[in-house]
Amino acid sequence: MKTPLAIAVLLALSAPSFAGAGDWASARLEGAMSAYHAGDYRAARRGFQRLSEHGSAIAETMLGVMYAKGRGVRENRAVAAGWFYRAASRGYGPAQIALSDAFARGSGVSRDARDAYFWALAATTGGDRSAEASGHMRVKALEKFLSADARVEIAEDVHNWRPRAQRER
After folding, report:
1. For a designed S-S bond to 120, which of 6, 78, 138, 152 qualifies (C-beta 3.0 to 4.6 A apart)?
2. What digits encode the pLDDT tens for the residues 74-92?
3. Which among 33, 110, 116, 31 is positioned nearest to 71, based on CA atoms?
């Protein structure tokens, strides 16, 4: 069975380039992904870092994966969770799944079933089929840790939540 972070990497690889990015960002993302898969983590990190400065949720997720796994950087699950949060806040499903998993396990953040449930449920609404399927599986697994009232409250929070890009308009 693949780890959630491996799934996030696979989802990031299959995700389309981010909106309005243009050829520069697409080429940069492709180069960073190629470097990552070739094991040139230094080049990958530089590429992802630069893209993250321009708002790429995919790059932020990949930086999170790098810190979670200690690939080219010192392993730091708190920093990984921070990168996942940035991308999840943009509405990026694979990052929402990774952040849900971080909260469910207490990996780099405090263990929190409510936050894990929130991010898993948010992933089910974003339009990314793989993230939606993963989100549904996690919601089902997490619901036993929350009361029915808590689940309804979180569902309302997710319904009222908007990704950062939509909030900034």
Report:
1. 138
2. 999 999 999 999 999 999 9
3. 33
Full set of structural domains in the chain with CATH: 4-161 (1.25.40.10)
Distance CA(50)–CA(48), nearest Å, equals: 5
Distances (CA, A) of 160 to 6, 32, 118, 166, 167: 30, 35, 12, 12, 11
What number of CA atoms fall less than 13 Å from residue 64's CA on the CB side? 35
| Cα-to-chain-centroid distance, residue 31 | 20
Which residue's entry shows tokens 């793989």?
130
What do you get for the CA distance between the two ends of the chain, in Å? 40
pLDDT digits (tens, 9 = 90+) for 100-154: 999 999 999 999 999 999 999 999 998 889 999 999 999 999 999 999 999 999 9
Q: Which two tokens stand for residue 113?
A: 């079933």
Single-letter amino acid, residue 140: K
pTM (2 decimals)? 0.84
